[in-house]
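Try this one yourself first.
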């Protein structure tokens, strides 16, 4: 029987509310991070402002030292950014790494209950804490750029003009976040109402309850006016179709109740 690796519980990552929804499983947390289009990264902005900074970034979990590592193994988080951005400058000035928090959220359904207070979402969320440092070695930097590009559309790296030229390598910075802890939280299922409402026929007779599944949809590719390739490459159409199928299936199955047939809609 295989082992399941988890992040250790610490004050910074222990979930206190709805503990039954918490997960510390590496594979679950890393998968949420890797399938979220935009990550929100917060960091201390320096001594001149009291407010923490938070910015949207593109990132991906991976291991340059062990590139065949799966999401169920210890991984770093690689983040892509511009050379002169504030977070990059702060990381450059932090010999032990810039402390950061990385957050990812996915909404899978709208929970419509009998009372406003019982409304909720089906969702998946993950948070990582770690120390961000600039990737200095060119070979690792190119590897990370490919990793992140492939996370946008699988097959795109080879489907574009590569490798990056010197100007692109100079203007792009990759942060490697050494993760020290993480946690996830998942809500699935249907409506959860209190007995005082479910037993009230006046309420149950007039308030519709249920779940509206929510999923991210990728549309049909639209060629750029300057595009000179007649057909959309197969790897792009395959990616779009595959992601739409995966996302819709997860949102529907997360409801955990029998789905109505087309005749019952």
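Now uncover the answer:
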């Amino acid at each position: 029987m295989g082992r399941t690796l988890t992040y250790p519980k610490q004050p910074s990552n222990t979930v206190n509310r709805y503990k039954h929804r918490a997960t510390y499983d590496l594979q679950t947390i890393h998968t949420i991070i890797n399938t979220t289009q935009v990550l929100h990264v917060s960091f201390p902005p320096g001594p001149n402002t009291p407010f923490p900074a938070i910015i949207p970034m593109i990132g991906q979990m991976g291991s340059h030292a062990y590139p065949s590592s799966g999401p169920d193994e210890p991984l770093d988080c690689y983040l892509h950014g511009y050379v002169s951005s504030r977070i990059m400058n702060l990381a450059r000035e932090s010999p032990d790494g810039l402390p950061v928090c990385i957050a990812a959220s996915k909404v899978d359904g709208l929970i419509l209950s009998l009372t406003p207070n019982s409304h909720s979402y089906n969702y998946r969320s993950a948070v990582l804490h770690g120390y961000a440092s600039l990737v200095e070695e060119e070979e690792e930097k190119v590897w990370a750029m490919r990793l992140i590009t492939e996370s946008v559309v699988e097959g795109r790296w080879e489907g574009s003009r590569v490798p990056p030229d010197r100007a692109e390598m100079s203007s792009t910075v990759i942060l490697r976040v050494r993760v020290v802890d993480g946690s996830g939280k998942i809500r699935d299922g249907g409506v959860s109402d209190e007995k005082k409402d479910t037993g009230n026929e006046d309420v149950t007779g007039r308030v519709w309850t249920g779940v509206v599944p929510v999923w991210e949809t990728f549309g049909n590719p639209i060629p750029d006016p300057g595009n000179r390739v007649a057909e959309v490459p197969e790897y792009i159409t395959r990616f779009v179709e595959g992601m739409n199928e995966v996302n819709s299936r997860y949102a529907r199955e997360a409801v955990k109740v029998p789905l109505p047939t087309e005749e019952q809609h």
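Discussion: Residues 220 and 240 are 8 Å apart (CA to CA). The helical segments are 26-34, 86-92, 138-152, 166-171, 195-198, 201-204, 234-254.
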